[in-house]
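Please fill in the sequence for the structure shown.

STRUCTURE ENCODING:
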């Protein structure tokens, strides 16, 4: 494997230094939760190796998201990132053909690339409303395709897809004997209500998610894979055991308590997201230098500086960061031009979001040629 540090990680806020940032618009989750929220006393927890698949109660909780699923269909991983890595390295070898949408959360592309897979990209377009078109996916599948990889709701655009489109992609993959990976890390944050777990629609479909984004808990590294293909789950378990044997019992115990409490939190979380999105919507409406496709899920959007403007982009990002102590996710994190930027609106406070958006406007004007 030829690993390469991804810009989205090397340039992340935590690597740059949270204390150097005033307005952090580069996050893709809600604000980070604290352990106190759970009232968690872990004093009695025995620090043993845990169940290799993940604590059974936690897996049962996750399985409850999909009718017909059981704890045996769930494998707990080190975040959704760990899930994506485990799946890619289990299913792909050098030269294997993979279809993946782009832009995307970087790991969905970078791990197959590090493996040496042959990647067919389905490039999403601003002009199409960033739509993931089942027909374009079908056209990219060949006799050699082993895996199709999509992310819904999508990162960095925040766009979802109608259930009929998801079902069409699932049906096509099933008919052609291809596995489908659906990165559902933002699934619960779909404004019109979540799509079904892809894994309940077909044995060929694999669902991935975590507690990082909707619940603001990236600091416990807990994600999961759901699949009804027991032989595949065993192969994924073998990979997990080689990476770390088990997950952390501390992380999984906290995750279990969070999962049990989450229904009480979700309405408040979704209400907060709606308020933040309204602020971004108002900013875009008033800002003639920016255009966007409004998101319908998640906590990020991917606006662009109007293409007819002449902007010195390095100056824009340097001014935004150094003069305004504000950061966004530049387009190159997603292999797109830097005239696009990912704006995360779920993490900052209302005040910091308003200030940060204003700083983006000002930095664009300071960089006009
Ligand atoms: C679409 C998507 N998948 C997976 C991940 C990985 O998240 P984690 O490993 O924290 O669960 C992220 C993080 O940004 C993401 O946006």
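FILLED IN BY: designer on duty
SEQUENCE:
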């Amino acid at each position: 494997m030829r690993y390469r540090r991804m810009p989205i990680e090397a340039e992340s806020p935590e690597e740059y230094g949270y204390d150097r940032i005033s307005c952090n618009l580069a996050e893709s989750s809600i604000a980070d939760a604290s352990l106190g929220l759970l009232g968690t006393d872990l004093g009695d927890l025995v620090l043993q190796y845990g169940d290799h698949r993940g604590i059974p109660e936690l897996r049962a909780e996750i399985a409850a998201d999909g009718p017909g699923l059981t704890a045996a269909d769930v494998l707990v991983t080190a975040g959704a990132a760990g899930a994506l890595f485990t799946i890619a390295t289990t299913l792909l070898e050098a030269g294997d053909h993979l279809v993946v949408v782009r832009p995307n959360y970087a790991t969905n592309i970078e791990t197959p690339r590090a493996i040496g897979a042959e990647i067919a990209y389905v490039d999403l377009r601003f002009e199409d409303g960033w739509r993931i078109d089942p027909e374009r996916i079908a056209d990219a599948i060949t006799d050699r395709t082993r895996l199709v990889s999509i992310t819904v709701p999508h990162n960095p655009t925040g766009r979802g897809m109608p259930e009929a489109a998801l079902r069409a992609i699932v049906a096509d993959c099933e008919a052609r004997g291809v596995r489908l990976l659906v990165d559902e890390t933002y699934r619960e944050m779909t404004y019109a209500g979540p799509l079904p777990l892809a894994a309940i629609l077909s044995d060929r479909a694999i669902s991935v998610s975590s507690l990082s984004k909707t619940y603001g808990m990236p600091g416990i590294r807990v994600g999961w894979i759901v699949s009804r293909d027991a032989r595949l789950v065993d192969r994924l378990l073998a990979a997990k055991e080689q990476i770390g044997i088990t997950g952390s019992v501390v992380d999984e115990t906290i995750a279990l308590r969070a999962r049990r409490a989450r229904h009480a939190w979700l309405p408040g979380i979704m209400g907060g997201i709606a308020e933040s999105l309204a602020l971004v919507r108002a900013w875009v409406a008033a800002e003639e230098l920016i255009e966007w496709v409004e998101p319908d899920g998640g906590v990020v959007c991917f606006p662009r500086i109007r293409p007819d403007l002449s902007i010195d982009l390095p100056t824009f990002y340097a001014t935004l960061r150094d003069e305004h102590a504000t950061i966004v996710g530049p387009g190159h994190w997603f292999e797109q031009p830097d005239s696009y930027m990912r704006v995360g609106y779920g993490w900052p406070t209302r005040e910091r979001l308003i200030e940060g958006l204003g700083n983006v406007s000002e930095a664009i004007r300071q960089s006009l040629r």
